[in-house]
Specification:
- By secondary structure, the protein is of the alpha/beta class.
- The protein is 38% helix and 15% strand.
- It has helices at 12-27, 51-62, 84-94, 107-114, 130-144, 162-171, 191-199, 211-214, 234-240, 248-251, 282-300; strands at residues 40-45, 66-70, 97-102, 119-124, 151-155, 178-182, 204-208, 220-223, 259-261.
- β1, α2 (51-62) and β2 form a beta-alpha-beta unit.
- The relative contact order is 0.16.
């Protein structure tokens, strides 16, 4: 039995096979329509989510399986004080696989250690969001043709943004990747990522404050929102929430084939006028999330479709 806590749980070869499977699912959906009949996915979401939870549910339903679960801690026995360890022991009696989101870092890992079914980390605090990273990798590879030789701009909340942390860890395993880290000083990437990941692996990167200065050289711009739920005081959130807004004028400075990605939800960091630009790929990205989660469910349940 295997779990997914981090994108690094898969080797590069395993990631390539997973992405190949997701592309095949996209091309031949009917081939996989009944592959999980009789299987149940439990979605255990201790904090709010739209895309991640619904895309997991859509993925399992598209595979012919069924779904059960809860969408907030208040609607689970966590509100009565039940531990994650006890919850997953119970869920293991009801379902074949579990996707768990939790505000506390490491909670899905604790669950995986007590579980009798595969557990997928669907986001734990500001730590990891591996299935969003798989979605990002599939989107980039499908639309750019490769995961190598790219200059990647990461913009916004790089301190608390778990999607950014996971994506950096995943992309450094591919050749000739360069990062441009665009953020206010207060929201720069954590020092462990700068020192232990980027510098330790001799990855080329630059840190900038102005999006306008960075955008002309980028092959890919990954926008993030400033997350109110990660701040300890409202004043800091209000001061920083509108620091970066991608407008049509700023996008005019970019390459004609640059991709704009965003894990969503968007607040106002991408102007709606950008949505019609062919470089805006964030809604296609959400669709790729269903395909990659279908591929992940099949992989962890060890279901092979001929």
């Amino acid at each position: 039995m295997r779990h997914l806590m981090s994108p690094l749980d898969f080797s590069v070869d395993e990631l390539d096979r997973l992405l190949d499977l997701a592309n095949d699912i996209e091309t031949h959906p009917q081939k996989y329509a009944h592959s999980c009949e009789g299987k149940k996915l439990a979605t255990c979401f201790y904090e709010p989510s739209t895309r991640t939870r619904l895309s997991f549910e859509a993925a399992m339903l598209n595979l012919g399986g069924s779904v059960l679960g809860f969408s907030s801690a208040d609607s689970s026995s966590a509100s009565k004080g039940e531990s994650v360890s006890d919850t997953i022991r119970v869920i293991s009696c009801y379902a074949d696989i579990c996707a768990m989101r939790h505000p506390k870092e490491g909670a899905p890992l604790v669950a995986s250690q007590k579980s009798r079914i595969p557990v997928i980390n669907a986001g734990d605090g500001g730590h990891e969001h591996p299935t969003q990273t798989l979605t990002d990798l599939l989107t980039i590879r499908s639309l750019k043709g490769s995961l190598s030789g790219l200059t990647v701009g990461l913009c916004g909340d790089l301190k608390f943004g778990r999607t950014v942390h996971s994506l950096i860890n995943a992309l450094i395993r591919y050749p000739d990747i360069r990062f441009v880290l665009i953020s206010p000083e207060e929201l720069r990437i954590p020092s462990y990522l700068r020192e232990d990941v980027l510098k330790a692996n001799h990855i080329s990167f630059a840190e900038m404050e102005r999006l306008e200065d960075a955008i002309p050289e980028l092959d890919l711009l990954y926008m993030t929102r400033v997350q109110r739920e990660r701040f300890f005081n409202e004043e800091d959130y209000i001061r920083l929430k509108d620091f970066y807004i991608l407008t049509k004028e700023k996008l005019d400075l970019a390459k004609k084939d640059m991709l704009v990605l965003h894990p969503l939800p968007r607040v106002n960091e991408i102007s709606v006028e950008v949505d019609d630009d062919p470089r805006a790929a964030y809604f296609r990205q959400a669709q790729y999330g269903v395909y990659v989660r279908m591929a992940l469910i099949l992989t962890l349940l060890e279901i092979h479709v001929a």
